[in-house]
Write a structure and sequence with these properties.
Largest sheet: 8 strands, mixed
Helix content: 55-70%
Order of helices and strands: HHHEEHHHHEEEEEEEEEEHHHHHHHHHHH
Number of strands: 12
Structural class: alpha+beta
Length: 597
């Protein structure tokens, strides 16, 4: 077994040097952003690393081996997890990016994302609980009434109550139009009846109350997703003075037995077995899915960070093993040596390192855009940042989660047969990582969102803005310390993305939408390689300038340049085949008849 160590220097590089933390704090004092200084970031990072490494990481293996379980109709969490949660909220981590008005610290996402990465890498199953709570906080804060905010947010921000997201049902899956849960008005509130599945931390023994956000239909609701409303349904009812009253009419039916994240209780919840669970409407009637997307988009961003984080843990394990495992005589050496010197192992480790650094830059950059969308005073700039954030969300979720899974798989390959043995711990990383490409919308759903809502809906305006910015950056790569191939590769992939975007637009206009959506996943990956490659090139340029200025961190900055070049040569080349699929793969897919499968 190996221990997780937070990559603090690389995190600091992305936040402070690549993105420029001051670019956020300079814009506005929104919810305390003016206090988002480099010094505060460093202090938070150091303490978060200590907490993640000393408190959360030791619980990770235990939670995998001794999962959450049901006893007498209630969930009992994995050993040590409740005590770990109590330490988590006592330290104030739950409110790191939450609103100041309700007890949070109000820090920007560009500072919260590194902390979240550490928590997920240290213990993914544990961190799913605060992840869902933060999404529920954001939804209630955005559309809730003043009374609802005051009633729920202080306790949720502190972590004394948690939150969940109740979307799907046994018959529905990802087709939310098929939801059947009902909400009937009664004396100013609603009675909720129905069953929900796949509810992460739908029950737990951490806190005295759980605030469920539940999609349901009113009696007069139109058919389809436009007929869904969102309701706040607490596990325990609240008295007028805010104290807890009797249990609500909801119960945990069972826990799912999963491939990974064993310590995270995934619940089947039943509402209204005794007449109807008490609930109150959140936002306007029939706009539940729109409101739920506030929570869902927050979760999608977090899952992208999560995928990258679990990949980081797996990479660290593979690297440690490769440095210690002596097997054979590597080419170019005269005696046996650790396998890290074997060319193919070196290739795998280099690929993992480069892809993780690229995903870290991509996800933190997306967090910064979300911050600017909230903080920017100028309406035009705020609108631009929101559009960029909207465009990046499905890319971060899809590309980073797929990359994290790929890294975990490669890490097990470095271990060889020992990786297939549970005792080494790397198998848990692979099992845990597998869900990240599925929940909060599969990669296919992210790709459909990218093509349908982000590319076609505005006739490509969001995408053109991104491509134009990357094009304008290319001349900056003409730096003597950077190889010309870096700019050439980025320019080539930029052209492929432009060709693919134009092709999809024309295909949609011709009425061949199935062809567009049939190649949406390759298109998402193409944009993922482009944006992450652009950020890696920017990282190399920052490093080159630091070396030119005489920085004493020579090894670190030289490694930054080498990693960016490796990413371009060993990773971004796949973009050519992705573009070929996007442009030519639609008709070939049409030719595949499901009846012939």
């Amino acid at each position: 077994m190996y221990d997780y160590r937070a990559p603090l220097r690389d995190m600091a590089f992305v936040v402070k040097e690549l993105l420029g933390l001051s670019a956020v704090s300079r814009l506005s004092d929104y919810e305390g952003y003016g206090e988002a200084t480099d010094e505060l970031f460093d202090a938070i990072q150091e303490e978060c690393a200590r907490f993640s490494q000393e408190v959360l990481s030791p619980l990770n293996r235990m939670g995998d081996q001794t999962p959450a379980r049901m006893e007498a109709g209630a969930v009992v969490t994995a050993p040590g997890f409740k005590a770990g949660y109590e330490q988590f909220i006592a330290a104030g981590w739950n409110g790191l990016t939450a609103p100041v008005a309700f007890g949070g610290q109000g820090l920007p996402n560009v500072m919260g994302a590194p902390a979240e990465e550490m928590w997920h890498a240290a213990n993914m199953a544990f961190t799913l609980c605060p992840l869902l709570t933060r999404g529920a906080i954001e939804a209630i804060h955005t559309v809730g009434t003043p009374e609802q905010r005051q009633r729920y947010l202080p306790q949720m921000v502190s972590g004394r109550w948690t939150g969940t997201m109740n979307l799907t049902e046994p018959q529905a899956g990802s087709d939310l139009a098929a939801l059947r849960t009902r909400a009937v008005p009664e004396n100013g509130h609603y009675r909720i009846t129905g069953q929900k599945i796949f509810i992460t931390y739908g029950d737990q023994d951490y806190t005295e109350n759980i605030i469920h956000l539940v999609l349901a239909r009113l009696p007069d609701a139109p058919a389809g997703v436009k007929g869904l409303s969102l309701f706040i349904v607490p596990k325990f009812l609240l008295q007028p003075d805010g104290s807890l009253g009797p249990a609500n009419d909801l119960r945990t039916v069972s826990l799912e037995h999963k491939l990974g994240i064993h310590a995270s209780p995934t619940c089947v919840l039943s509402y209204g077995d005794e007449g109807g669970a008490w609930g109150e409407l959140l936002g306007e009637p029939h706009r539940g899915l729109e409101i739920m997307f506030i929570m869902m988009n927050a979760a999608r961003f977090s899952v992208g960070v999560q995928g990258m984080a679990i990949g980081q843990r797996a990479y660290q394990g593979a690297l440690e093993y490769a440095r210690e495992r002596i097997q054979g005589t590597p080419l170019g050496l005269s005696t046996a040596a650790p396998i890290v010197f074997h060319p193919d192992v070196k290739r795998m480790l280099s690929s993992m390192k480069a892809r993780l650094e690229a995903c870290r830059a991509l996800s933190y950059y997306a967090g910064q855009m979300l911050d600017l969308a909230l903080a920017e005073k100028d309406p035009t700039q705020r609108s631009w940042a929101q559009a960029r954030s909207d465009l990046l969300t499905p890319i971060v979720k899809g590309f980073c989660s797929e990359s994290g899974l790929w890294v975990a798989n490669e890490a097990l390959q470095v271990f060889g047969g020992m990786g297939y043995v549970e005792e080494t711990g790397i198998a848990q990383c692979l099992r845990d990582a597998r869900i990240t490409t599925i929940y909060e919308g599969t990669t296919g759903i992210q790709a459909n969102d990218l093509v349908g809502r982000k590319l076609l809906r505005d006739q490509g305006a969001m995408v053109r803005s991104l491509l134009t910015e990357i094009q304008a950056f290319l001349p900056e790569l003409q730096h003597p310390a950077l190889p010309g191939s870096l700019a050439q590769t980025l320019a080539h992939v930029l052209g492929l993305a432009e060709q693919s975007s134009v092709h999809l637009g024309k295909t949609a206009l011709s009425g061949k939408l199935p062809q567009c959506f049939g190649v949406a996943v390759p298109y998402l990956h193409l944009l993922g390689w482009l944006v992450s490659g652009w950020l890696m090139a920017r990282s190399a340029l920052v490093a080159a300038r630091k070396l030119q200025e005489g920085s004493q961190e020579t090894d670190f900055y030289q490694a930054k340049i080498a990693t960016a070049v490796f990413y371009a040569e060993h990773g971004m080349g796949v973009s050519t085949s992705l573009q070929r699929i996007v442009v030519g793969g639609g008709p070939a897919l049409d030719g595949m008849n499901p009846e012939h499968f």
